[in-house]
Amino acid sequence: MQGDSLCCARLEGAALVQAIKRWGRELxxxxxxxxxxxxxxxxxxxxxxxxxxxxxxxxxxxRHGVKRSRPSALVPGTVSVICARMNYLPPQARASRSVLxxxxxxxxxxxxxxxxxxxxxxxxxxxxxxxxxRHVEGFxxxxxxxxxxxxxxxxxxxxxxxxxxxxTLLLARDAGSWFFLxxxxxxxxxxxxxxxxxxxxxxxxCIDACPTQAIIxxxxxxxxxxxxxxxxxxxxxxxxxxxxxMGNRIYGCDDCQLVCPWTRFAKTSREPDFAVRNGxxxxxxVALFGWSEQQFLERFAGSPIRRLGYERWLRNxxxxxxxxxxxPAVVAALEARRDHPSALVRVHVAWxxxxxGR
Length: 358
Description:
The chain is of the alpha+beta class. The chain has helices at 13-26, 42-51, 59-63, 71-74, 96-100, 117-133, 152-158, 205-209, 227-233, 255-258, 285-289, 293-299, 310-322, 328-336, 343-355; strands at 2-3, 31-36, 80-87, 105-108, 140-144, 163-164, 170-171, 179-186, 215-217, 220-221, 249-251, 283-284. Helices cover 35% and strands 13% of the residues. A hairpin with a 2-residue loop joins strand 9 (215-217) and strand 10. Helix 1 runs antiparallel to helix 6 (117-133) and helix 13 (310-322) runs parallel beside helix 15.
């Protein structure tokens, strides 16, 4: 944990929590909550999910062991967790459904259209922590934003920031699910907020809408079928049976969020860092497939997509082109990559060309 020796007016208990929430809002977070570090039976559910192999080749999920479900095992001395959420939906982005309905365009998950959220959210959390440190002696902390083995949704739901939807994402009545989560692990014993009640009821729209039927039961996902996993986490060949179901989704998938009734309450982001870059909200598949590796690296500097790597970027677009109409431009783009140096790219290009009768 990091510490700060600066100190001014001391705050404690409920007064401190209220101040933390106010400071969080001033730093751009829409909601802040506090929970204890004991995750109870969440560990048993995590271990059962891993035992079924639903994590696919995300080996790090198992490698970290109980550090994910025991905050004090990850950061010794952790007693409380401060959870926060920040809206990310870009206000100027083309409507998702109109992109998904245009098979010659590329759909990129809305969270990845702008700057890398890891850096933005973690930086704001660090600012919040330093502000707390000025008012609390002995305050120690570490901040995370999808950057360590942390059960973000579990913690946030316990902290009253929202509730876990049947698609396993966090939902909020005033924001849907279009937000990032972040946490501050701390040695302070803070009053915990009550958890948010579940407001999904009998609705199954997210389950019904999943293109690959990856939501195998309410609150349970088989990542091996999830398009977000296949296009981002999975390093090898995408299973052939799933390729036609991916449509034009080249990085992530938002379908379960788009159909959720709570989405209508979502707010667009005021963060300039989350504004659309490189026209990714409405880009041509053919145009993106024509990028050189240098263009990929330069244009995605500071983007979460850069970590995907150029090879998998081409793999994903090749699949989408295989699902696109058989226009001369589409076929020509694929033919140009037929002899690509990467075997991974060649396999998916060959599949796509076969789809177009080539």
